[in-house]
């Protein structure tokens, strides 16, 4: 079993566990061993074998009693932006280098309750601010397909751990594309659900009106059970939704919608997606899109058409405006959220200071990295008196117009929108070191979705770059609360392609 563990699906592993062909402890140990074999990737920030094996023993006890669910005994790992009681939570920042939370994030607790076994905490951009996972205070994560390239960010450790076969699934967070982009660049699948459907309690805040947790796994089918358990109303989160288009926001919602769509597709024979209208935004195919990415996306769209779907050209005219809008709103919210790190209550405190003001300023200067400081300064500036109306309020108006563009497309022309996730394949580590805003431009296809709060996902659809060895992702965007439909549509593509099954050549 261990020789096949790296690329076994969650359903397959679940059957093996319930039939006692393998134990949760064996899977956990295999995962721990793989994590240690791939330390060159720098995907993990904290591993504790004892804690992991304790959870695995508990999962084995549940399975022995016949009480296991679909995730009982399945190894997973958490982005180090979710607080955890026993593993350290650093947000990949010196500010929280030695911090351990007194409670678990809701996402962590729900997966624990489902019997999933945590292997540890995963590297990310500091406080989730970045597009390449180069901003971690503890070093960049490396892409399993090419260790000299970035894995994408900010959930780079999450995507790299799945791509390398260390764990079948991980948790991530998506503020402006931080689940979809690393999933695309690492050749795995990841989904950002509708804003408010997954609790943000215990998720270290970056942009409170944008942050949303989402899973990363090898396939769309693997994502279903993870997302289904992660989701649900949480009274401790003021942004959590009680209902989703009239349906209670609780575990089972996504699974039921997924199964319903799959049954419908199965009833249509060799044309399972007959009647599905795919909107393709003309603004996504411009000069900034690399030819290899464009070709891979076009080939994927042709594959969808062969399954019965109809391609429809649509327009999202404010696509380019998503970049300035997001990079006003997100830093503004970050400047507020990160003001709590002042050296008084928790985290780093500067060793040398003469008064309270100096303690706070030196603590922040020593604890925050350059990208975090940059965004705090931008955010503080746009919220200042005299600039608030000109920048922040204007950005919020643009945000509403971007949302309206999506809603018009769904109301009049299409059921799902498809296009690229990133303008190019993964860049080399350090390529944009002299231009910190270059990474911001790479988010052009993901930011609008986040500003609108829509669900979206990335699935592998080909390879590009030199020698065609780096993964390319296809983005699927749905209307509010259509996560089940998105996953079913993605699964139909993965049933007839094998991009999601490709294995990186680990050296």
UniProtKB/TrEMBL annotation:
<dbReference type="Pfam" id="PF01425">
    <property type="entry name" value="Amidase"/>
</dbReference>
<comment type="subunit">
    <text>Heterotrimer of A, B and C subunits.</text>
</comment>
<protein>
    <recommendedName>
        <fullName>Glutamyl-tRNA(Gln) amidotransferase subunit A</fullName>
        <ecNumber>6.3.5.7</ecNumber>
    </recommendedName>
</protein>
<dbReference type="InterPro" id="IPR020556">
    <property type="entry name" value="Amidase_CS"/>
</dbReference>
<dbReference type="InterPro" id="IPR036928">
    <property type="entry name" value="AS_sf"/>
</dbReference>
<keyword id="KW-0547">Nucleotide-binding</keyword>
<dbReference type="InterPro" id="IPR023631">
    <property type="entry name" value="Amidase_dom"/>
</dbReference>
<keyword id="KW-0436">Ligase</keyword>
<feature type="active site" description="Charge relay system">
    <location>
        <position position="154"/>
    </location>
</feature>
<comment type="function">
    <text>Allows the formation of correctly charged Gln-tRNA(Gln) through the transamidation of misacylated Glu-tRNA(Gln) in organisms which lack glutaminyl-tRNA synthetase. The reaction takes place in the presence of glutamine and ATP through an activated gamma-phospho-Glu-tRNA(Gln).</text>
</comment>
<comment type="similarity">
    <text>Belongs to the amidase family. GatA subfamily.</text>
</comment>
<keyword id="KW-0067">ATP-binding</keyword>
<feature type="active site" description="Charge relay system">
    <location>
        <position position="79"/>
    </location>
</feature>
<dbReference type="InterPro" id="IPR000120">
    <property type="entry name" value="Amidase"/>
</dbReference>
<feature type="domain" description="Amidase">
    <location>
        <begin position="28"/>
        <end position="487"/>
    </location>
</feature>
<feature type="active site" description="Acyl-ester intermediate">
    <location>
        <position position="178"/>
    </location>
</feature>
<keyword id="KW-0648">Protein biosynthesis</keyword>
<dbReference type="InterPro" id="IPR004412">
    <property type="entry name" value="GatA"/>
</dbReference>
